[in-house]
Every structure is written in structure tokens, then in C-alpha cells.
Design brief:
Chain A is α/β, with parallel strands linked by helices and 488 residues long. Helix content of chain A is 16%, strand content 22%. The chains are: A alpha/beta (488), B mainly alpha (292). At the A-B interface, helix 6 of A face helix 1, helix 2, helix 3, helix 7 and helix 9 of B.
């Protein structure tokens, strides 16, 4: 649940100034924190922006008391005493600290528990000033979908993580600036315990340095992923509760909403959505929107409200690149078939395709990512495809190459943000529900709107510069199996 | 409260909104993508039911698992057994959901009523009944449920507020003023949520209060107010209010914004709209008594 942290705005520029000059020997050394470092069972960053971040944690891996405060600063060897900030504790036992007044594009180190020093693994780099590029000129985004297999004690999400790390090592050691999860983040029922096993025990190192931005999948609503309810208040499970169940009041019964602290008021850019179920934010030159294709989309009034918010949010966006994430894919022939509502479970696929893709295309979205189907599928650069797969007409719906065939996005067929028709009206849709498992394909595979489809576990890396964006499908060995380029 | 690594698990087992899938599976016998866990779950539940054949909770759980694995007959049988195995009230919600999903609203309603008599603040039942009543035109009763829901939960998405406001606006003895008060209250609590603000603007337009709609446009988020779309929308309202002269500056700003910058399909359409409205405003402005 969104937790008001306003009373914790304790961090001031004065504190930061005091802790940013650790190498100046002419100055009297500032007092440093004197607490004891605690290694939480879960530790992650939320809502990282140019001037603020939320550090969130719970538990103590060593079994001792939990930390109640945090110290931080720019000198990892001397975290100033003035930086000590007390945490708010939520009903589900999460501790949260909002650090504000930070400098853009700056690395900060932190100690949960408030020690005077921090290790390099407990650090974050604030986003550049709004609209500016990171220092290295590139925004790197790592995306995984349906990666929650750790919740059922399966190891594949770790293999995918390792593949990404290999990719990073082989491509200039540039870490991810953002980590996006496409839903079904914690199988089978999105309980708190399953989140622990599928997220916090798998991406532990990454989460201590890189902000996580999730979206809601069907398994986040429990019920083995078959819920069609519209309200988080209806979260329930099927089973004996051995993997956990609904969270206790006064928090939401839906663990996703209690674990993550997501923007509702445009805190990190974007327009206020008034709900944590869908939101948007800015990072450097990229605007990212996370839609709720599981709950809000299933009720006409809630869907209309989300669609209206999306239109307004995209209208107000002027950053270089726009990426939208949601769980239910409009074009898939993987383990889900975008031609079938599956008795209502997959109705959101139709709602996304019929009502939301026209907005993406009209309002300048560049890339859309979803999961749900346990496969990797990447579309051509398309617009206007709101029907079933047999209505896809490449001649009128896809960006074409010089030979009149759908362009691949590769080599001399790289896409341009302003397409050949002179308008920015096309989107590349990618299904990346292969972050923890691949299963099977359905009748009609591959979907005709897709350029590349493969049953192989992996993830997506987006590198967004000022004028060039490249999106890559990275397998568990760190190899790139598909990629495309878009320029502007 | 002190942090707890593993929160308690208050599973409200009798409340299974998703048991709706029982009937859904009956009505849509399509192959459901069954998770491997479901088959295992059925086996485990069957074993436990074998030891406790009248356990209502277990029967409902297995019914759910049958439903997901596309075995509707078995699912329904378990639901009926569950109804007989314990207090029928505990199964009333599930029964109502099944009928609701089948489109049999008239039959579903008594089940929700029965369940809510026992559990008047159960959000799941209120949610289903509110929508059922809304969808069957029983607006006054629907409104009562929506208002109860809003009182029970502070985290409902903006759609619930719009649904409630729409019902308020449609009832003669409640009306648009109450609807606007509800929307304004939520915006005051949560900040400028544009779908709520825009619905308020629609309500003002609907009753011909264009000036108030324009004032509400001014209350939208600053980032939205910087867009050409906002300029065009304000101009349209001014034209509706027969103030073409005042509309022209907004259209001029919009046109300037639209003739530079990124060419999205929306901006193309807006430019065409702007040019059309400029012509309209100029025509109206030159006519007798057009400007106010």
C-alpha cells in the first residue's frame, strides 16, 4: 500500500553537503553514524528519481533485530551521523525510508541499520535531471516477465538473471538503470512468501542498487492465476496456505500492493493516477507507463478511467522515448492465444488490443512489453491491428522495407520513430513472458504480426540513447537472439 | 507495529469470489491453460476430502481446481456438496457469483443479499452486487452499495468514484451537485486525478455550465495544461459558451505548439481540429452578437 512518508523528509541539502566531501582533509571530519549494519531478508529500492528514492526492507538474515533506521552519503567510508533516518514500519512489517533532497546523477551509499560505512553493493545512483541523459549517454532497462518460478522453488529465473549479468559483462559492464517486471512475478498465487522466494531471493544483489518497477499479472491476484475480479480486496488463494495467503488488515489483502510502494501522485514524473495499480514515471529521457491489465481493466468504469488517465499522461509526456508495460499481450500465440478469451480469463488481451493499442499508437508510444505467454515474441513496427490474428495485413499495418515487405528493425531496416508515413504512429509489441519458463505454443503459431518468436527463456535489455534505441532479447547464456533498433 | 518476516495468513476460506470459474467453465468449455500445480492440487484435495467428505472448505477448494482444469461437471458437483455440507450462507456468495457470471442477474441477487445479511461489510459481495445492480438499472440500490464500498476502502481505483458519481448524477433527488462533491472530495484527498476531474468537467458541460467547466479545466495538472490538447479543449468550451473571441488565443497557442515538435497521430488530428476551430471561431466572431 502506498505509505505516507512525508514525516520522514528528514534529509536536507545540508546533510548531503556534509557527507559529500569525505576526501577534503582541510575540513574537520564530520561525525559518522555509529549503528550496526543489518542484512535484511528483503531489501529493495522504489521510486528512484532525480532527487529522491525509497529504500524498503524487512527482516534480518542473521536472525537478530530488524533495522529501524538507515544512514547514507556519497562517501561509502563515512556515512554522516546527520544522515540517520528513521523508518516507517507498515502493517506487513516493511520498513520504508524516503530519502529526498538528493543530487541528480549522483551515487549514494547506504547502511541499513545505520553503520558509519557502507559496502559498494548498497548503493544507488539517482536519475539524471529531468529529460537529461545519464552520464554514459544511455539509459539501460532490464525487463523480465513471468519470472516468478522461484515461488515454486524452480531455478530458471536465476539462469535468466545470470544470462543478463553475462550480457552486461560482455557489453561494457554497464549496469541496468531500471528493472521492470511484467507480472506473474511470484508463482503460484503472489503471496508474500512467494514474493520472497521469487524476487528477493533471486535478484538480491540487483535490488540493492537498482529500482524495481512492477506491473500486475494474473498470478498477483492469487487463485492460481484464474481470478477475474476487479478489486484487490477480493484477493484470495486456492490451497492450504502453506505458501501464505492474503495479507492481514489494515493493509490490502493483495501482497503486491503492500510489498511495493508505487507512485499515485506523479511523484517521479507522469500524471497522478490516484492508484498504485497503474502509474507512470520518468527516468532520464524515457517515460514509462505501467498499466493494470488484471484488475482495473475488467470493469467498464475502471477501464475507462485508466484509459483516460493514459491519454492524459501520454499527452503530457515529451521525453525522447515512451515504453508501456502490462501483463496481457495483444499479439501472442505462445501459451496464451490472443485470439481466445479463454473463458474470460484472457478478456484483458482483447481489451488491450481493441481499446489501448490505438491509444499507444496515436499518442506516441514506442515500445510495449507484456508477459503472460511463456515465450518471447516480437512484433513488426505496427499500427491499426485491433482484430484477430487473421486480420493482420502487413501491407497496411506494418512499417515496410524498400521491397515492400514488413521491416525487421535490423540493419538497414532499422525503425524510425517517425515512420515512413510521416507520423509517429507505430509501436513494437514484445511478449517477454519467458523470464522463468517457456511452455508451449498455440494454434496459428507464430502470430503473423510478430517478426521473431522463440520458446527460449531469457529477458529483454533496452538501451535508450538520445537518438537511438536498441532492444535485445538475451538468453540464459548472455547471447542476443533477437534485437531491433529504432532511431529518432 | 513490529516488523514480522512472515505475516500471519488469515485465509477467509469460505469467501471464494473466483469460484465463479466453476460456472464460467461450464459456460465456456474451452481448454484452460492449467498450471501443473492444479492437477497436484486436485489430487491432494481429493485425498483430504476422502478423509473428510463433508468438509465444506475443501469441497469448495476442489471445485475451484476442477473449474480451472476444465471439468465443470465435477466442479458443480463439489459446489452443491459444499452447500449441503455446511451453513448454506457460506456458499451463498459463491452461488451468486456463478449466476452473475452466467448473466442470470435476477437469480444471483438473492444470493448476494443473503450473504450480505450475514456479512454486511464483505467487500467482495458488495462489489459484485453493486455492479449487478448497476448493470440492471437498479441505480438507487447500486449507489447504496457503491457508497458503502467507498466508505470501507480508501484504496479503490478511480473507476469506483466515477461509477458512484454517475449513479449520483442520475438520481433526481441526489443529482449532479452531489456527484461533483464526491469527485472534488476525492481529488482533495488524493491530488489531481485527471479522470475524476474530467468526469466533473463532463458533468458541468452536461448541464450547460461551460464557465464552470472552463474553471475546472484550469484546475488540471500543470503538465496537462502545458499541452496543445488542453488549449484546444478550453477553446472548444469557450465556443460552446459563445465566446469565440476568447477561444482564438487558445487556438493560436495550440497551433504554434502543434506546428513544431513530435508528429504523433494525435497531434496531427489536433492540428486539423485547431485549424477547423479557428475558422469556426473567426466566423462566429464576425457574426452579430457572437462575442460576450
Amino acid at each position: 500500500m502506498n505509505n505516507p512518508l512525508i514525516p520522514l523528509l528528514l534529509v536536507t541539502g545540508l546533510v548531503l553537503a556534509g557527507c559529500s566531501d569525505g576526501n577534503n582533509n582541510n575540513k574537520k571530519a564530520a561525525a559518522t553514524c555509529e549503528g550496526a549494519e543489518v542484512q535484511p531478508e528483503r531489501l529493495f529500492l522504489q521510486q528512484l528519481g532525480s532527487n529522491s528514492v525509497i529504500v524498503k526492507w524487512r527482516g534480518n538474515r542473521d536472525g537478530g533485530a530488524e533495522a529501524s533506521s538507515l544512514c547514507f552519503g556519497t562517501d561509502m567510508a563515512a556515512l554522516p551521523a546527520e544522515s540517520k533516518t528513521s523508518a516507517t514500519v507498515t502493517a506487513t512489517g516493511h520498513s520504508e525510508v524516503l530519502l529526498s533532497g538528493l543530487e541528480p546523477g549522483t551515487t549514494y551509499y547506504y547502511s541499513v541499520g545505520g553503520a558509519g560505512t557502507a559496502d559498494a553493493g548498497h548503493s544507488f545512483r539517482t536519475a539524471p535531471a529531468a529529460g537529461e541523459l545519464p552520464e554514459d549517454g544511455n539509459t539501460r532497462i532490464w525487463i523480465v516477465g513471468d519470472s516468478g518460478v522461484g515461488g515454486t522453488d524452480d531455478p530458471e529465473a536465476g539462469y535468466v538473471r545470470d544470462g543478463f549479468e553475462t550480457f552486461v559483462k560482455n557489453h561494457g559492464d554497464e549496469p541496468a538503470d531500471l528493472f521492470l517486471m511484467l507480472g506473474d512475478n511470484a508463482y503460484n498465487q503472489g503471496t508474500d512468501l512467494e514474493h520472497q522466494k521469487a524476487i528477493f531471493d533471486v535478484y538480491t544483489t540487483l535490488l540493492a542498487t537498482t529500482p524495481l518497477w512492477p506491473t500486475i499479472g494474473n498470478h498477483e491476484m492469487g487463485s492460481l492465476g484464474i481470478s477475474t475480479t476487479t478489486s484487490p480486496d477480493d484477493y484470495t488463494i486456492i490451497g492450504d496456505g502453506s505458501q501464505g495467503g492474503p495479507d492481514p488488515a489494515p493493509d490490502s489483502p493483495m501482497p503486491y500492493l503492500n510489498i511495493f510502494t508505487l507512485p499515485t501522485d506523479g511523484e517521479i514524473g507522469g500524471l497522478p493516477s490516484g492508484t498504485e495499480q497503474y502509474y507512470s514515471f520518468d527516468y532520464a529521457n524515457v517515460h514509462i507507463v505501467s498499466l493494470d491489465s488484471q484488475l482495473s481493466i475488467r470493469d467498464p468504469d475502471s477501464r475507462a478511467a485508466m484509459l483516460q488517465w493514459l491519454k492524459d499522461d501520454l499527452s503530457a509526456n515529451s521525453l525522447d522515448w515512451t515504453v508501456v508495460i502490462f501483463h496481457h499481450p495483444p499479439y501472442t500465440k505462445g501459451s496464451h492465444d490472443s485470439d481466445s478469451e479463454l473463458g474470460g480469463i484472457d478478456q484483458p488481451i482483447f481489451a488491450i488490443r481493441e481499446e489501448f493499442t490505438p491509444v499507444f499508437e496515436q499518442y506516441g508510444v514506442d515500445l510495449a512489453y507484456s508477459g503472460h505467454s511463456h515465450i518471447y515474441e516480437r512484433s513488426y513496427y505496427i499500427n491499426g491491428h485491433t482484430g484477430l490474428s487473421d486480420t493482420f495485413d502487413p501491407a497496411t499495418m506494418a512499417e515496410l522495407n524498400d521491397s515492400g515487405q514488413p521491416a525487421s528493425g535490423q540493419g538497414d531496416e532499422a525503425y524510425t520513430q517517425i515512420a515512413r508515413d510521416g507520423a509517429d504512429d507505430k509501436v513494437v509489441y514484445t511478449v517477454a513472458g519467458n523470464g522463468g519458463k517457456v511452455t508451449f505454443t498455440t494454434s496459428g503459431y507464430p502470430h503473423p504480426a510478430n517478426f521473431f518468436s522463440k520458446l527460449e527463456i531469457g529477458s529483454v535489455v533496452i538501451d535508450a540513447g538520445a537518438d537511438r534505441l536498441e532492444a535485445s532479447f538475451v538468453d540464459m547464456n548472455g547471447s542476443v537472439l533477437d534485437s531491433f533498433v529504432m532511431t529518432r | 507495529m513490529p516488523a514480522s518476516p512472515t505475516p500471519p495468513i488469515p485465509v477467509k476460506l469460505p469467501l471464494f469470489p473466483c469460484t465463479a470459474w466453476l460456472l464460467l467453465a461450464l459456460l465456456h468449455p474451452v481448454p484452460v491453460s492449467a498450471d501443473a500445480a492444479v492437477g497436484q492440487r486436485i489430487d491432494a484435495l481429493s485425498q483430504r476430502i476422502g478423509q473428510n467428505p463433508a468438509d465444506q472448505v475443501l469441497l469448495l477448494q476442489r471445485a475451484m481446481a476442477y473449474a480451472e482444469s476444465n471439468q465443470p461437471d465435477l466442479a458443480l458437483a463439489d459446489v452443491l456438496r459444499a452447500e449441503e455440507a455446511g451453513d448454506p450462507v457460506e456458499a451463498a456468495f459463491t452461488h451468486g457469483v456463478l449466476l452473475y457470471r452466467a448473466g442470470d442477474y435476477a437469480s444471483a441477487l438473492p444470493y448476494f443479499n443473503r450473504y450480505l445479511q450475514a456479512y454486511p461489510q464483505d467487500r467482495g459481495s458488495l462489489d459484485y452486487r453493486a455492479r449487478l445492480l448497476r448493470d440492471t438499472g437498479k441505480n438507487r440500490e447500486a449507489l447504496a452499495d457503491y457508497e458503502t464500498l467507498l466508505g470501507l476502502s480508501d484504496s479503490l481505483d478511480p473507476g469506483y468514484y466515477i461509477a458512484t458519481a454517475r449513479l449520483l448524477a442520475g438520481l433526481p433527488d441526489r443529482g449532479v451537485d452531489e456527484a461533483l462533491a464526491l469527485l472534488d472530495k476525492r481529488v482533495a484527498q488524493r491530488g489531481p486525478i485527471t479522470p475524476l476531474q474530467r468526469y466533473a468537467i463532463e458533468l458541468e458541460k452536461g448541464r450547460g455550465n461551460y464557465q464552470r467547466a472552463i474553471e475546472r479545466m484550469a484546475g488540471l495538472d500543470q503538465r496537462l495544461k502545458a499541452t496543445p490538447q488542453w488549449q484546444v479543449e478550453v477553446a472548444e468550451l469557450l465556443l460552446m459558451d459563445a465566446r469565440p473571441g476568447e477561444a482564438l488565443p487558445y487556438l493560436a497557442v495550440a497551433r504554434e505548439q502543434l506546428e513544431s515538435g513530435r508528429t504523433t497521430a494525435l497531434r496531427r488530428e489536433l492540428l486539423a481540429t485547431t485549424i477547423r476551430l479557428q475558422a469556426e471561431a473567426q466566423r462566429a466572431g464576425s457574426g452579430p452578437g457572437a462575442a460576450r
